[in-house]
C-alpha cells in the first residue's frame, strides 16, 4: 500500500491563491522610491536564503540562512536584482557610492 498523497497532482491551483503562495514562498514585496526611481524590495527569510550573496552596501558576504532584502529597479530584469543586508539597505543614502574591493576579493 502506498502512502496517502495530500497534494493535488495537476499544475492547477484549486484555491486560486497564486499571489498568496508566491508571497509565502518569496517574501513580501513592496515598492520604494530611491534616487528618483522606483525599486521593488522583497524581504527574504532565513529559511529561503540558500546561497551566498555579496551585499553591495558593505561589500560583505551574506551567508545562507541569514534573512536579507532583495532589491531591483521596477522595470529592470532578473539579472539586476541585488541582495542587501537589511541595515545596509536602510543606510544606503549614508554609504559612499564607490566601494573599493581588495585585489583578492571574490566578484560575486
| Contiguous runs where pLDDT drops below 50 for at least 5 residues | none
Average pLDDT taken over every residue: 78
Total number of helices: 2
Helical fraction: 10-25%
Compose a concise summary of this entry.
This protein is α+β, with helices and mostly antiparallel strands. 13% of the residues lie in helices and 25% in strands.
Describe this structure in words.
The longest helix is centred in the N-terminal third of the chain and has 9 residues, at 18-26. The protein has helices at 18-26, 86-90; strands spanning 29-34, 37-44, 53-54, 61-62, 68-73, 82-84. It is built from 2 helices and 6 strands, in the order αββββββα. The protein has a domain at 20-90. A 4-stranded antiparallel beta sheet has the order 1-2-5-6. It has a two-stranded antiparallel ribbon with strand order 3-4. It is extended and about 60 Å long. With 108 residues, it is of the alpha+beta class. Strand 1 and strand 2 (37-44) form a beta hairpin. 13% of the residues lie in helices and 25% in strands. The model has no long low-confidence stretch (mean pLDDT 78). Residues 15-27 have a biased composition (Basic and acidic residues). Residues 1-28 are annotated as: Disordered. This is ATP/GTP-binding protein.
Features:
108 residues, alpha+beta, four-stranded antiparallel beta sheet, two-stranded antiparallel ribbon, ATP/GTP-binding protein
SSE blueprint:
Layout: H1 18-26, E1 29-34, E2 37-44, E3 53-54, E4 61-62, E5 68-73, E6 82-84, H2 86-90
Antiparallel strand pairs: 1-2, 2-5, 3-4, 5-6
Amino acid at each position: 500500500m502506498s502512502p496517502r498523497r495530500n497534494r493535488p497532482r495537476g499544475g492547477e491551483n484549486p484555491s486560486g491563491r497564486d499571489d498568496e503562495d508566491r508571497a509565502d514562498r518569496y517574501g513580501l514585496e513592496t515598492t520604494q522610491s530611491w534616487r528618483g526611481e522606483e525599486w521593488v524590495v522583497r524581504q527574504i527569510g532565513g529559511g529561503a536564503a540558500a546561497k551566498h550573496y555579496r551585499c553591495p552596501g558593505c561589500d560583505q558576504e551574506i551567508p545562507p540562512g541569514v534573512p536579507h532584502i532583495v532589491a531591483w529597479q521596477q522595470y529592470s530584469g532578473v539579472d539586476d536584482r541585488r541582495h542587501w543586508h537589511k541595515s545596509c539597505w536602510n543606510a544606503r543614502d549614508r554609504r559612499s557610492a564607490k566601494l573599493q574591493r581588495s585585489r583578492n576579493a571574490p566578484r560575486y
